[in-house]
Amino acid sequence: MGHRVVTTSTPIVIETDVPILTWFGVGGGADMLARPASIQELRTLLGRDEPVRILGEGANLLVDDGGVDGLVISLENICDVLELEEGGLLCVEAGADLPKLIIETVRRGFGGLEGLGGIPATIGGATFMNAGGAFGEIFETVERVHTFDPDRNQRSYYKDELKYGYRTGGLDGHLIAAVELRLTEGDPDKLRDRLKEVMAYKKTSQPMKENSAGCVFRNPLVDGERTSAGKLIDEAGCKGLREGGAEVSDRHANFFITREGCTARDILKLIDAVRERVLKSAGVELETEIAIWRRGDMQ
Asked: Are the C-beta atoms of 126 and 113 separated by less than 8 Å?
């Protein structure tokens, strides 16, 4: 299965007709998928004249039942972590797993990421969307981001050069290759206790044992202030609302969970139904936070 791309070192296998694993556990596959082993191999793949999509943890993502065209690039093997300076300056490749990094940095006495506990993401994905929540955002620790720009040229940006904000790293059109994080030295036991507090809160307030991709909608601006999308959805009477195998969580209304037999179409129908109810009850039009991949949407 798959064909090979000639490179300056070893060939890169491009698989065909490959399932895409997401946290929803539904949706179609990729016509082509590659798993580069290094940033050099990633650069080689980006030199191909075709649309690309970047796959991280598969959280915050819904793939249409019909799958996707173009080349999907999984960064799962581009995950090295390098300590640039003693005291907590790390360079983390984009495919590194955020939950694992949090555990390791806490163990070593580096603070700053523990407020992101429970967020399923790669470092690249978390930085691209400035992942966060009630306990902080990743850009609180970001110092510099290394990317491929929309023309697929390598670029680096310091944090103050980026227009980051709520659920955006200000890097639309860019592909993140690595992120430099400035952490602070702290007591491992205190950091571990803090992480436990964050996780305990999320276990009681989010459906962490269900198939879910995280928050479906962005918190909207209402009268100039961020308002909880989950609260608006709850007030619209949507908890427990179902479309096929997709259901609005009873624990957190901005989380959709999937049951046996669920399809991406079910989730899309539920998104539309919730949007309509919130618009009628609160006069607010919700925007999706999850990415939705469809065949032909990159042409």
From this structure: no
Q: Is the pTM of this model over 0.90?
A: yes
Structural domain for 45, as ranges = 3-74
Site of tokens 């459906």: 207
Distance CA 114, CA 117 (A): 5
If asked whether residues 101 and 192 sit together in one domain, one would say: yes
Render pLDDT for 42-59 as a digit per residue (tens, 0 to 9).
999 999 989 999 999 999
Q: With respect to residue 62, please indicate whether it lies within any of the assigned structural domains.
A: yes
Catalytic residues: 167, 215, 289
Beta-carbon contacts of 117 under 8 Å, excluding residues fewer than 6 positions away, are 99, 102, 135, 195, 198, 199, 202
Please identify, among 146, 173, 203, the residue that sits at the C-terminal boundary of a domain: 203
Which tokens sit at 266? 């079910």
Using CA atoms, how far apart are residues 60 and 24, in angstroms rounded to an integer?
A: 9
